[in-house]
Design goal:
The structure holds two protein chains of two kinds. By secondary structure, chain A is α+β, with helices and mostly antiparallel strands. In chain A, about 25% of the residues lie in helices and about 35% in strands. Chain B is globular. The chains are: A alpha+beta, B alpha+beta. Chains A and B meet through α4 and α5 of A and β2 and β3 of B.
Chain lengths: ~270, ~100
């Protein structure tokens, strides 16, 4: 029998990504341990949180599948999230949400990505399909679709580089600059990023090629490519407009280039 | 020939970048980059000013182009953007809530 905690003992685990804490409450001790392990390094200690979710788990007999299409929509001021392995709702005004899900880290991982992307969209930031790293106090983002080289460039990172993620980069706006923050959202390296941040120095669009070089890219092309890689889950016109404006703002403040690279460590010689 | 009135759809996001206008459909995320002439028409697409007046009063005034040529180019531009739902076109003035406010 799965050990459970009584209502009074309901455990809270605070997951802090990009400086934003989201509290997860569960009465299932095994699930609590699972998320503590999954988000080790991102467990916050602050008593206050941006949002909080009560999590109930499906009965083992209930059929679930993470392969079903994700649906994200808004209704009466709440965001409703749904996939085969979870159902969730979240009120952005109160910060309260509820998740009913299978006992797997993938469902809550998806919910966290969506909630962070919705919060960031209102603040001029975004999540983007990209690896990112800090070197010499400056953050660099390496963006690209699957196969472009995010995992490769992460694997080639020199010892003096701190890997923030090999899959999903977290970009937060702070006044007239952007910060890149570590995320626990891992890709093929299956390596959780470091929970730290640094001012963003440049964004590179990855392309594998015969030699290492950085090429200029025009602002309109850069914005289009960035938009293709930004995660926004909801089919919501206002949200799409917000993300577009964020991408345009980003283009005015952060240099974006094409990075053509040979998959060996020398590529990092030109990233400084 | 009937007058054409044009207006920007509400379901778009647009931004001027280096003299060009970048327009994105919020419905299907398609992008359009408008050059300076097209940007002038875009800016003037208020739903109330006839396209012919935009061509003579704006395009021909601001760019060195003859009226007939400018009108043909404007017609093509309007047709293309209207096919994607970016611009709304009517033979009557367009003033309703589906239009982008300036």
């Amino acid at each position: 029998m799965t050990p459970t905690l009584t209502a009074a003992e309901k455990a809270t685990v605070s997951i802090e990504i990009g400086g934003m804490a989201i509290a997860l409450r569960t009465d299932d001790a095994a699930f609590q341990r699972l998320i503590e392990n999954r988000y080790a390094g991102f467990i916050g200690s602050s008593p206050s949180s941006h949002s909080e979710f009560d999590i109930d788990l499906y009965e083992q007999s209930e059929p679930t599948s993470a392969d079903e299409d994700l649906e994200v929509r808004t209704k009466a001021g709440e965001w409703l999230l749904r996939r085969g392995d979870f159902r969730a709702r979240w009120n952005p005004k109160t910060g309260y949400g509820h998740v009913r899900q299978s006992c797997s880290p993938y469902a809550i991982d998806c919910v966290l990505r969506i909630v962070h992307s919705l919060i960031l969209a209102r603040e001029g930031g975004f999540l983007v399909h990209a690896a990112s790293a800090i070197r010499n106090g400056k953050a660099f983002i390496f963006s690209g679709v699957s196969g472009a080289g995010k995992t490769t460039i992460s694997r080639l990172a020199p010892p003096d580089a701190t890997l923030l993620t090999d899959e999903i980069s977290y970009v937060r706006r702070e006044g007239n600059r952007y910060m890149a923050c570590g995320t626990p959202f891992a890709g093929e390296l299956a390596r959780v990023g470091e929970n730290c941040s640094a001012p963003l120095s440049a964004l590179f669009f990855l392309e594998k090629g015969p030699q290492n070089r950085i090429e200029p890219i025009g602002p309109t092309e850069a914005i289009q490519r960035l938009m293709r890689n930004i995660l926004f889950f909801a089919d919501d016109t206002e949200l799409v407009k917000l993300v577009f404006q964020s991408a345009c703002e980003f283009a005015t403040l952060v240099p974006m280039h094409r990075l053509v690279f040979v998959p060996d460590q020398r590529v990092w010689d030109i990233i400084r | 020939m009937a007058e054409k009135y044009i207006a920007r759809s509400k379901a778009i996001a647009a931004r001027m970048i280096g003299g060009e206008t970048m327009v994105m459909s919020a419905l299907d995320s398609t992008f359009f980059t408008l050059n300076e002439v097209a940007s002038t028409i875009w800016q003037a697409a208020d739903g109330r000013t006839p396209l012919s007046e935009i061509v003579t009063g704006k395009v021909c005034q601001e760019f060195d182009v003859d009226r007939e040529r400018a009108q043909r180019a404007a017609d093509r531009f309007v047709e293309e953007l209207s096919q994607h739902g970016i611009l709304l076109v009517s033979d009557q003035p367009l003033i309703d809530s589906s239009l982008e406010s300036r």
